[in-house]
Amino acid sequence: MARICKVLIVENDDDVRNLLGNVFDHEGYRFAQVKTGAEMRQALDEDDYDIAVIDITLPGSENGFALAQIARDQGCGVVLITGDHRHLERLQTGEQYYLAKPFRMQQLLEMADKVLAELATQCVRRKRGDGSLFSARTE
User: Fold this and answer.
1) Is the pLDDT of residue 129 over 60?
2) What per-residue confidence (pLDDT) applies to 2?
C-alpha cells in the first residue's frame, strides 16, 4: 500500500491557500494549511510533512526564506512561491525550487514530484526514524 505524501501549505492569502489545498486534495495528497510562520513551526512540531509549500512574502516580519530553512531542517522538501518578483533574482541563484505567481497548478504538482524524488535520492532521515520516502500520490 502506497503512503500518501503530506504537504504543509504556508500562505497568508485565504483564496490562494484554499486553491492550493483543493489542488493537492484532488490529486490525493494529505495536507494542512497555515497562515503564518508561527503556525508553520507548530505544525512541524506536531506532525511530519514531506513537502512545505511556502509563500515568501508573508505579513509582518515573517521571512519565507528563513521558514524554508526551518522546514528543510525538519526533513521537508520545500517549494517557495511568490508574487513579488523582486525575489526572483535570489531564487534563481539559489538551489531551491520555486514558482512565481501566477503559475499553473500542474507546474506545482510537477515540482512537488521533483522535490520528493530529490529527497528520496538524498535518503533524508525522517523524524519517524526509518528514513524511507514513498510515492507522492496514491495509486
Assistant:
1) no
2) 46
Domain map of the chain by residue range? 6-122
CA 133-139-74 angle, 5° bins:
25
Answer yes or no: CATH 3.30.360.10 is held by domain 6-122.
no
> b/e string for 3-36 if b means 16 or more Cβ within 10 A?
ebbbbbbbbbbeebbeebbebbeebebebbbbbb
H-type alpha helices, 1-139: 14-26, 37-46, 64-73, 88-93, 105-122
Cα–Cα distance between 85 and 23 in angstroms, integer? 24
Q: Per-residue pLDDT tens for 28-80? A: 889 999 999 999 999 999 998 999 999 988 877 778 889 999 999 988 999 99
Quick one: DSSP state of residue 122? H
| CA dist., res. 72 & res. 97, Å (int) | 12
Specify whether the CB–CB gap between 65 and 56 falls below 8 A: yes
